[in-house]
Amino acid sequence: MKVALLLLLISGMSVPMLGQKEPEESTARSILALEREWAEGQSRNDNRALNLIFDNALVYVEYGQLVSKRDYLARIKHESPQIATEAMTVRAFGTTAIVVGTYRESQFKGGHRDLKRWRFVDTWVYKKNGWVLVAAAAAPLAP
Amino acid sequence: MRFTTVLLMAVFAAGISSWAQSDADSATRSKIVALEQLWNQAYKSGDTKALDSILDDSIVLVNDDGSMQSKSEFLSSVKSSNLQPSAQQQQVAPESLNVNVYGNVAIATGVMRVKGVEKGKSYTRRERFVDTWLKKGNTWVCVGTDATPVLH
User: Fold this and answer.
1) Which of A13, A76, A87, B69 pairs with B34 at a CA distance of 20 to 30 A?
2) B68, A95: Cβ pair inside 8 Å?
3) Distance between CA B58 and CA B61 in Å, rounded?
């Protein structure tokens, strides 16, 4: 009888834990898909796609400079860097998600190919119409 | 007449709600500014207990050279630099700070001037940081921080 109660208690405890894990996994899937969408959108100069996934008050840091959403989209219109993501980890905190990872950026500049490696941290927030990127920063890594 | 009254009431309610929201955002901004100041002071004085209370256990911490640290690694480095002040960064002076609020999430960004000694050489550099703060229960904790050298 005691064993049955204990089993019932354990199963009761594991259900919420499982329930907790599922939304986190689902968040991670959504965020990774958006990160891919971002990299692809950037490579295709697709400003319209990027406009939808960036919050209007996006804080974007590049080479230590703060770049507004408008300036970033304007630059991407004329540049199409090829982004190859190496690794990404998503940490979900309810309606907030932090992504940390590294990527390689390849761009044709002044007649030669420029290669860079970056470590990035992105913050996504779930708003009325879905997940939006609210902050992104990248620090250059040794190649 | 009825329509006008209803419309006025709706506009008034929207105004109240927007005012309450902006009031809450303003309170959050003040709170985050205070927490950023606390972080700087605790870092300078090597107060790992204070740092422990404002950094989430699963914080994502990226340094200006792109290296990553866990919370325990960061706290250990603060402790050891406090024991050997010449070994690491010594002074952190914030130059600017801006906070964007999204309900229970806040993004703090700014520039800080870092002075220190590394391998016997003194240096001064400027770094832009982006910190993500999250309200867990009634407490704000930092869940992500990134520092990038200001190059240009």
Assistant:
1) B69
2) no
3) 9
Residue B99 C-beta-side C-alpha neighbours within 13 Å:
21
Number of independent structural domains in chain A? 1
Query: Which pLDDT band, with edges at 50, 70 and 90, does B79 fall under?
Result: confident
Tell me what pLDDT residue B35 has: 98
User: Which 39-58 residues of chain A touch chain B by CB within 8 A?
Assistant: 55, 57
Domain boundaries, chain B: 2-149
The pTM of this model reads 0.81
Query: Which CATH number goes with the domain that contains A109?
Result: 3.10.450.50
Q: Which of B64, B100, B144 is facing A57, going by the closest CB pair? A: B100
Of residues A143 and A69, more confidence is placed in A69
Question: Which burial class, exposed, middle or buried, applies to A142 when counting CB atoms under 10 A from its CB (0-12, 13-18, 19+)?
Answer: exposed
Q: What is the CATH number of domain B2-149?
A: 3.10.450.50
CB contact under 8 A, B62 and A121: yes
Q: How many CA atoms lie within 13 A of A107 on its CB side?
A: 13
pLDDT, tens digit, 9 for 90 and up, residues B17-63: 666 677 789 999 999 999 999 999 999 889 999 999 999 999 999 99
Q: Return the pLDDT at A137.
A: 94
Q: Please determine, for residue A32, whether its predicted confidence score (pLDDT) is greater than 90.
A: yes
